[in-house]
What does this fold into?
Amino acid sequence: MTAGAGAPGRGASPLLERPGAVSGEREDAGVAAHYGDPMREQRLLVEGLAAVDLSHRGVVTVTGPDRLSWLHSLTTQQLTGLPPRTSVEDLVLSPTGHVEHALHLVDDGETAWVTVEPGTAPALVAWLHRMQFLLRVEVTDVTEAYAVVGEPVDAEGAEGEPPTWRDPWPHLGPDSAAYGPVEGHPGADRRWREVVVPRAELADRLADRSLAGTWAAEALRIAAWRPRLGHETDHRTIVHEVDWLRTAVHLHKGCYRGQETVARVHNLGRPPRRLAFLHLDGSGHVLPERDAPVELDGRVVGRLGSVARHHEEGPIGLAVLKRSTPVEADLTICGIVAAQTEIVAR
It folds into this structure.
């Protein structure tokens, strides 16, 4: 990682000019991983006192009178009749039911606003254009014009506020299913929303606010057992493996791409892999890298998705494991011992 002193590079957030800012890496490059004290930044988020620069996320708009019924027919979520300023989590699946895109969607009555993982907006827009046919919709990648700000707030956007997506995790939808716990879920107290603002106004809007970096936000996400596209997912991931049915899938809506796999595994089978929460041995100073193999007695049984240092729990992570991996077994990742907590139990 590199310090953000001086002018940020092309595509970098202007908030990297804040004192102490250190840029993130991989898909989180271009925004601050932290501003000098990631543990303090975590505590500020828990207390609701900081915002997170997520201006590297993609922003897509869908307009036109057919926008919600069209998106409803293509994705996993119930969108017809969606009231304005009501947030939903939605997925695009492959024909065989594997997760391809994760959509954070809110409609303001005229436009469906969607934020997506960094770098994925062009592929999503290209696919949506191929699915457009003669319907009255227009899809636009507006990432260059709009930026995303993360806030530890548990509220939908009010009338007159910018487009705002409130994270529904981990609360069950009206026709969904939990593959992990319903009561006592560690994510139940996590407050989170994404606010879409004009990119030209980003620095001014956050000028007087305390900031937390992506390291802090990621640590709290991991502690909430919340999956992230590209971290806890790969080209083989089905929604059941990471407990994504609870917030992103409507089980009895009309046909959509990948629905057959969703229904078959839910009704007749069990997912071949399962998400697990890990407590890592914190006696060392180095965390394993994302995508590192997870081993049991020298055999690879899974892959590390996300890893972070939590301000209370120490080194933690999320891993996707073979279903047959014993729940009580201690695992190793790059020589570091990790104890697991079962998330996906079905």
Observations:
- The CA atoms of residues 145 and 199 lie 5 Å apart.
